[in-house]
Design a protein that fits this description.
Shape: globular
Order of helices and strands: HHHEEHH
Strand content: under 5%
Largest sheet: 2 strands, antiparallel
Helix content: 40-55%
Number of strands: 2
Oligomer: single chain
Number of helices: 5
Number of domains: 1
């Protein structure tokens, strides 16, 4: 068993939206907050418990900070960037006109 104590981010400092980012819905913020209130907190903790037991789902590292959705902070940022970029590409491909500034601000906030 690993004797290192993991340093964890204070759960109050991360956004509720960080924990539900990879859940199967992409809703407006007000609607996602309503849905979140309906789901027991234990459902959101399952990914954290998995991380604590097995390490990051993506890279497998165990001695790193938790980022959310069962991944370390670094992998969580990589996956979030990829999802945001993929969505933007798909919207552009179908001809939807989108203002790129919100995506740019969001991606910069992950740095």
């Amino acid at each position: 068993m690993n004797s290192k104590k993991l340093i964890c981010r204070n759960p109050n400092t991360s956004s509720d939206l960080d924990e539900i980012f990879l859940q199967p819905w992409f809703l407006s913020r007000p609607l996602s907050e309503k849905v979140r209130r309906l789901i027991p907190s234990s459902q959101f903790q399952k990914m954290r418990h998995c991380f604590d037991d097995y390490g990051c789902l993506r890279c497998g590292k165990r001695d790193c900070l938790y980022g959310g959705n069962g991944m370390c902070e670094r992998c969580h940022v990589v996956v979030r960037r990829r999802i945001a970029s993929s969505l933007f590409k798909r919207f552009r491909r179908i001809g939807a006109r989108l203002d790129r500034r919100p995506l740019t601000r969001y991606l910069k906030s992950l740095d």
